[in-house]
Design a protein that fits this description.
It is built from nine helices and twelve strands. With 423 residues, the chain is an alpha+beta fold. The protein binds fe (ii) ion. Fe (ii) ion is lined by residues 56, 86, 150, 154.
């Protein structure tokens, strides 16, 4: 029996349909421990409410996929175009980002109904696409794939944003009250091993035709690296605590000028969610009287684990720690080249790792066509690249060429570091 092209196309559509269902269900699963009140609040302009994430990811499918590609598609509610557009100038004005937490309406139930409306239309489009010609099918499947990767990015933000909101609550609620899972799979109390890299011309970036990537990972190109050493593991909380206790946050010699200004202005004295032994919020915790530092995370406030990778660091803090440690941050291409080497540990699954690289376009970079042109390219100024992936990154979402990016003072993500040095 031979398999026809049409059968193969139908199979690929069915596979994507299943993936769509799974990714969309995962967003609801992540939101499920949260009350309707939890899902409505916005704790700072950078962080969005859970309900907004659920609606905006749906808006993306409705706007970029269904309205241009599904004949006679009826939008769920025409007001949602204004409410749930994030930053797409080409699609007109939108609700101000810092005011997303004011949207008590639509209700959570209405947002769930919105998701169901769009899901049904996407499944219809995917089922009908093979019959509408090869070019149409390819385009539809490419946009669905982009939309799913977009939703996975928001799944991580959903967690980091609700964690920030909970960190502002004196009760420090636990998103997941179950015991802390074994995060330190490979973390070791011993000093990191230094992996020697000989440098030279290396190929970096995502190769065309090798599965999905975001446009910012392309084109693949040559980069010249000087010889360097890179730590085989992440910096852990025990090491970072030494930096704190050594007066790292009081010594301007260790800090970039902009970073020192933020330390002064914000009164930083430790990573974002560390609770000092005299932190008044500990009065509300069961373990509040315990000695030593605590760290607030998805599992609530827990005693600092010296072997767990340090998280919730800004770029400024990561760079100051590296300076204190007599090392530096790797560039993004040093990180990428080393990621393929045997012995490198904790590349993903713990924290995103700050690099010393500005978020810039690769030589020959071209943004995606159409509305999605605004997805990445217009943010390529004033931000730093992070590599790897975190405990909040959905399984299968990241890859060695993946470029995450945030401004240097951002520290509400699961962000930490690994060290590099000259060889
Ligand atoms: Fe988005």
């Amino acid at each position: 029996m031979t398999i026809s092209g049409t059968q193969l196309q139908a199979a690929s559509g069915a596979l994507l349909s299943r993936r769509y269902r799974d990714v969309r269900a995962h967003s609801l699963l992540l939101a499920s421990p949260l009350s309707a009140e939890d899902q409505c609040i916005q704790s700072m302009p950078d962080a969005s409410p859970t309900k907004w994430h659920l609606a905006h990811t749906t808006w993306f499918f409705e706007t970029v996929l269904l309205m241009p590609h599904l004949a006679n598609y009826q939008p769920f509610d025409r007001h949602y175009q204004y409410l749930f557009n994030s930053y797409y100038e080409a699609l007109g004005p939108r609700h101000p980002r810092p005011q997303r937490g004011l949207l008590t309406r639509p209700t959570l139930a209405e947002v769930h109904a919105y998701r169901e409306h769009v899901d049904a239309a996407v499944h219809k489009l995917l089922a009908e696409a093979p019959a509408a010609g090869e070019a149409h099918r390819r385009e539809v499947e490419a946009v669905v794939t982009l939309g799913l990767n977009h939703e996975q990015q928001h799944q991580e933000l959903l967690l980091t944003d609700i964690l920030h909101a909970f960190s502002c609550n004196p009760l420090l609620p636990a998103y997941d009250p179950s015991p802390v899972p074994a995060l330190r799979l490979a973390a070791q109390p011993s000093p990191p091993a230094w992996i020697e890299m000989h440098g030279g011309v290396v190929q970096v970036g995502h190769a065309a035709g090798e599965g999905f990537s975001f446009d910012n990972e392309t084109p693949r190109h040559n980069a010249l690296l000087q010889p360097y050493r890179i730590a085989d593991r992440l910096v852990n909380c025990g090491e970072y605590l030494q930096f704190v206790e050594d007066g790292g946050y009081r010594n301007p010699q260790l800090w970039l000028s902009d970073g020192w200004a933020v330390v002064q202005a914000q009164g930083w004295h430790a990573p974002a969610y560390w609770l000092a032994p005299d932190d008044p919020r500990r009065a509300h915790q069961d373990a509040g009287n315990a000695k030593g530092w605590q760290v607030f995370g998805l599992h609530g406030a827990r005693p600092l684990d010296p072997q767990a990778p340090v998280s919730q660091l800004s770029f400024y803090e990561a760079a100051a720690f590296a300076e204190w440690a007599g090392a530096r941050l790797p560039t993004e291409f040093e990180w990428e080249a080393a990621s393929a080497v045997q012995g490198m540990r904790e590349l993903t699954g713990h924290v995103w790792q700050w690099t010393r690289s500005s978020y810039d376009p690769y030589p020959g970079f071209k943004p995606l066509a159409g509305v999605a042109a605004e997805y990445n390219g217009k943010f390529m100024v004033g931000q730093l690249v992070l590599r790897g992936g975190s405990i909040a990154t959905p399984a299968g979402h990241t890859r060695p060429t993946y470029r995450n990016f945030f401004p240097p003072a951002a520290r509400w993500q699961f962000s930490g570091l690994r060290l590099a040095k000259e060889l």
